[in-house]
């Protein structure tokens, strides 16, 4: 959750800068825009493996409830954490090149890839990589709920574990909806300024989901 919070903070920082761009009706400088988009995507890309790691953590918690409080930062977890941030920084580095960038456009209230020669390929890598991870999360949560239902009489899940499970499922589901709508909205929504605004609002809400759920489910 801590690392997911850092990824969320990166996205919120970029969205805050985008808010300033919108209020001032300018991005000030192309490099400020590129760096802001890179920070946004750094947090977004890192959140994929981190969300998957959270799902795996919940799976082990349900499967082995007795050992759920042991050190979860064993080497496999550390490897996934390392991969998450390496992937995020690799995408960030690609956005700092002249060949690709994610830029904010104040006139349509939205972030978008530029028309650089690498942008399409990087966009597809983002889409399919995140899609695979979030699909795996969905499969894991189906397995978790199936096991909980099957052994509901014998399982003694604490209220804390159940709250974390609910929180994890909502985070995974909402992140999936953001990914799908951002990359495929043109197939089922009109390409208007209000559509772009609504999609960006979804992305603004996404990094806020984690702390809101934490405060709501852990009074």
TrEMBL record:
Pfam family, one: 7TM_GPCR_Srx
Keyword Membrane in record: yes
Tree of life domain: Eukaryota
Keyword annotations from UniProtKB, A to Z: Membrane, Transmembrane, Transmembrane helix
Keyword Transport: no
Transmembrane segments: 38-56, 77-96, 127-144, 164-185, 197-217
InterPro entries: 7TM_GPCR_serpentine_rcpt_Srt, 7TM_GPCR_serpentine_rcpt_Srx
All copies of domain 7TM GPCR serpentine receptor class x (Srx), residue ranges: 29-170
Protein name (record): 7TM_GPCR_Srx domain-containing protein
Organism: Steinernema glaseri
């Amino acid at each position: 959750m801590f690392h997911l919070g850092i990824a969320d903070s990166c996205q919120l920082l970029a969205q805050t800068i985008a808010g300033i761009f919108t209020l001032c009706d300018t991005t000030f400088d192309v490099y400020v825009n590129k760096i802001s988009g890179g920070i946004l995507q750094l947090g977004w890309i890192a959140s994929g493996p981190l969300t998957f790691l959270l799902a795996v953590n919940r799976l082990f918690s349900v499967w082995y409830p007795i050992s759920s409080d042991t050190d979860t930062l064993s080497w496999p977890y550390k490897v996934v954490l390392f991969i998450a941030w390496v992937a995020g920084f690799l995408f960030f580095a690609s956005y700092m090149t002249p060949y690709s960038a994610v830029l904010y456009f104040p006139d349509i209230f939205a972030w978008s890839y530029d028309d650089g020669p690498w942008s399409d390929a990087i966009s597809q890598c983002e889409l399919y990589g995140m899609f695979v991870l979030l699909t795996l999360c969905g499969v894991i949560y189906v397995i978790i709920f199936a096991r909980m239902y099957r052994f509901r009489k014998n399982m003694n899940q604490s209220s804390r574990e159940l709250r974390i499970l609910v929180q994890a499922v909502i985070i995974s589901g909402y992140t999936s909806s953001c990914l799908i709508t951002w990359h495929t909205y043109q197939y089922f929504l009109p390409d208007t300024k209000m559509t772009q605004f609504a999609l960006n609002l979804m992305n603004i809400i996404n990094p806020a989901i984690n702390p809101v759920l934490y405060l709501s489910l852990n009074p």
